[in-house]
Write a structure and sequence with these properties.
Elements (H helix, E strand, L loop, with lengths): L2 H7 L2 H38 L4 H21 L18
Helix pairs in contact: 2-3
């Protein structure tokens, strides 16, 4: 094994990132279920009232940004840790 590979395998920062990725993979699966729930509830609101629920709409926008942040972290496109280690995204 070359020294470069050995150094990469022993890099603490990489292993910490992998642990964070496992945590965010779990949070991602929860977020998927919440997104589906919001979609079903919003569809019910539209069917009954003819319009969306503004609070669910705001939360849904923020949740979609959160999921995007997690995916960017998973794919190494960002080094910024998503919520709960960073701020919850706003909806604008």
């Amino acid at each position: 094994m070359t020294p470069d590979i050995q150094q990469n395998l022993l890099a603490r920062g990489t292993w910490m990132r992998i642990l964070y990725m496992l945590l965010f993979a779990f949070l991602y699966s929860i977020a998927e279920m919440v997104v589906f729930g919001i979609a079903v509830i919003q569809a019910g609101f539209v069917l009954i009232t003819g319009q969306t629920n503004p609070r669910l709409l705001t939360f849904g926008k923020a949740l979609s940004r959160y999921v995007c942040q997690m995916i960017r972290f998973f794919t190494f496109a960002s080094d910024t840790l998503p919520f709960p280690f960073g701020p919850w995204p706003n909806d604008d």
